[in-house]
UniProtKB/TrEMBL annotation:
This is Transposase IS3/IS911 family protein. Signal peptide: none annotated. It holds the Pfam family HTH_Tnp_1. InterPro entries: Transposase_8, Trp_repressor/repl_initiator. GO terms for molecular function: sequence-specific DNA binding; transposase activity. It comes from Desulfomicrobium baculatum (strain DSM 4028 / VKM B-1378 / X).
């Protein structure tokens, strides 16, 4: 039966090796094949820069309220401009 490894455990195991631990000993302690360790390490090194990229954040309620007010003002201004040019139908 295949063993499932969560992301945190994989990262911890890979970091053990990157910090100078003996890969064979780490693999033996975690009952892991060295080939799988090196696969994880490659993936880790290939994607580690992503941790420093900004994550998109959901707008807060106050951000939404400010945007809502801006849009209401814009609709009001456009309505006034349309009314100046003739009647709205």
């Amino acid at each position: 039966m295949k063993r499932k490894w969560d992301a945190r455990t994989k990262a911890r195991i890979v970091l053990e090796g990157l910090m100078g631990g003996c890969v064979n000993e780490i693999c033996r302690n975690h009952e892991l094949r060295p080939g799988l360790y090196y696969k994880w390490r490659g993936h880790f090194l290939e994607h580690c820069h992503l941790i420093f990229e900004e994550q998109p954040r959901a707008p807060s309620q106050s951000d939404l309220a400010v945007e809502n007010e801006k849009l209401k003002r814009l609709v009001g201004e456009l309505t006034l401009e349309l009314n100046k040019g003739g009647s709205l139908r």
